[in-house]
Amino acid sequence: MLGTPITIWQDKRREVAQAAILEAAWTVAREQGLASLTLRQVAARVGMQAPSLYSHFASKHAIYDAMFGQAWRSYDEVVDALEPRLPSEPRSALKLMARTFFAFATADLARHQLMNQRVIPDFTPSAESYAPAVRVVARLREHMQRLIEITDEDVDLYVALVGGLADAQWANDPGGSRYARLLDRAVEMYADALALPATPAGPDSQEAR
Amino acid sequence: MLGTPITIWQDKRREVAQAAILEAAWTVAREQGLASLTLRQVAARVGMQAPSLYSHFASKHAIYDAMFGQAWRSYDEVVDALEPRLPSEPRSALKLMARTFFAFATADLARHQLMNQRVIPDFTPSAESYAPAVRVVARLREHMQRLIEITDEDVDLYVALVGGLADAQWANDPGGSRYARLLDRAVEMYADALALPATPAGPDSQEAR
DNA sequence: GTCTATACTGTGATAGAC
DNA sequence: GTCTATCACAGTATAGAC
User: Fold this and answer.
1) What is the pTM of this model?
2) Which nucleotides of chain C are near protein (any atom < 7 Å from a CB)?
3) Which of A42, A182, B151, B192 has a CA-to-CA distance to B90 between 20 and 30 Å?
4) Is the dihedral angle over the CA atoms A80, A82, A88, A92 positive or is it negative?
């Protein structure tokens, strides 16, 4: 009994250690800034010496890479939770999706810089870590396609619009709501450009708050 | 004769040296990446030792700061040159302004990162270097105000929209035109939201190419 | 004032003992 | 796997030549 092979046990141990390192890395990144993260700080937080991290990650960039994958997988899960709550009325759905992305992007600067900007010199996510990001955009397209007739260019414009607002929020009014206030208006503008029907008036037709 | 005081001569020399350092810094930033710029590389390019740069700039951040000011002053001059060519027809003018900014932003990654992103850890532009950036936005607002009735929020939305497209261009299709192609459409969408009159048809009514 | 020489501290990364 | 020791390179402080 308990015939779990030792190799799996070791893999588990390994995964636990890696998870602890990544959690420490997130904490340090949030406290010191993403680009100011140092291996010595991460190592100290998990009770190691800096070189020991190389037993678990090939380089500092590999840690960033794993964090990048985590962040997008995390947002993919947010989209999972959102899916059943998405209204069928197109404008309301677009607004809710935009608000969800915006809230995620403005909740954590380090995460936003890693996911959506190129803050780390010479860091490019690996294909494996980039996959969840691709998946999120693909699902966005599917959702939008389900609501309305839409082209790839339409999706690009939507992404640039909502992403531009999130970037501007961090750059010009961090912690405030100067650009958050413009979100619904931006989506209405976008929906008008796609000639979507206006949201019908009525007690239950408004988007979720 | 030639009674120029020596102090002015020295100031000139000083300015020349500073300009040479900044020009070298731009070259290195474009070649190696903005954040990978090192003082030793900059110094080598102007025939100095790295510590000698401290005779002209208080720190590496001070060099970035001067570059930041240069970049925005440079764009302010672009706006100067644009001003007499701006059509009075609102949509065409908005398009030309958007294209001008987009072209400037996508012409030089290092410059764009310095001007519009927060790529350098712990670097915040000084009030003096930030002034030209403020001036550019103020002039944008004046130009738009001259064309149409507009609020601060309208300007914010315009900036986020055009900036979002430029960021997306660098992030997802550097060197390509995937988002550049969406520029005119984005401005039309924005103009529709402001209920601007449609561009009148006619041989001379189209925006400048 | 401007520059060089030297050196201090902190970084990511590697080698090898245990 | 984790350690210690060490390396190459970074920004930058200081001292002193000119």
Assistant:
1) 0.92
2) 1-7, 10-16
3) A182
4) negative
